[in-house]
Amino acid sequence: MRKEKVISNYKALSDYELSTLAGRVLKAMQETSTQASFPNPNPGLTDLETIVNDYITKHEIASRRGSALEISLKNESRDALLFALKNLAHHVNEVANGQLSLLLSTGLVLVSKPSSSELPLVTSRIQLRDGRISGQMRLDFTPLKRVWEYEVEVGREDATNTVEWFETFNTTSSRGNVLTDRVPGIKYFVRVRARNSKGMGDWSEAVSLIAR
């Protein structure tokens, strides 16, 4: 019988995805009920909070057209966070011993069940970068196997800081997708989902970039 587990390696996540996951895991592990189930986590909650907050802060700084130094500091903090999440996942898997409710309570991601007829996985490592000229952006992401095409949504924040998705297009390529006619100075958000013979997968985490 297959034993449920959480993923221990999150290197494939984009910085935005990793930041979102880390914040979710920290909040989940700080819940009273979760602390009761995992009283001696590795790393400890104080250390985990320090590592997560350090990465989130440095990621936010580097994402705003950070300097080479700021990006380097973010990357070092990312490595520390990935190591911490790996240790935490091993600890969670050992303590939970396959108990699904305990695994889900941590905010970590479950290992996908093997299947020959699955919907596409969530698209990962979404990268949004400046294009060659003003008003352009380049979109790249990790390709998925046995996928027909990808659906891309573009949005921007409204007056309430809620992302409004206003543009959709399909592509068969995971690299070199160019978004044109962007307004300089406006922050745009992009998310991606894949389609195969079974249907559409879930949306990826959104990434953002200020058009130049």
Structure description:
This is Fibronectin type-III domain-containing protein. It comes from Sphingobacterium paucimobilis HER1398. InterPro entries: FN3_dom (IPR003961), FN3_sf (IPR036116), Ig-like_fold (IPR013783). Residues 122-212 form the Fibronectin type-III domain. This protein is an alpha+beta fold. It folds into two domains: 15-105, no CATH class; 127-210, Sandwich (Immunoglobulin-like), CATH 2.60.40. It is built from five helices and eight strands, in the order αααααββββββββ. Strands 3, 4, 6, 7 and 8 form a five-stranded antiparallel β-sheet that branches. A three-stranded antiparallel β-sheet has the order 1-2-5, with no helix packed on it. Helix 1 runs antiparallel to helix 3 (45-63) and helix 3 runs antiparallel to helix 4. It starts with 14 loop residues before the first helix and ends with a strand. The mean pLDDT is 92.
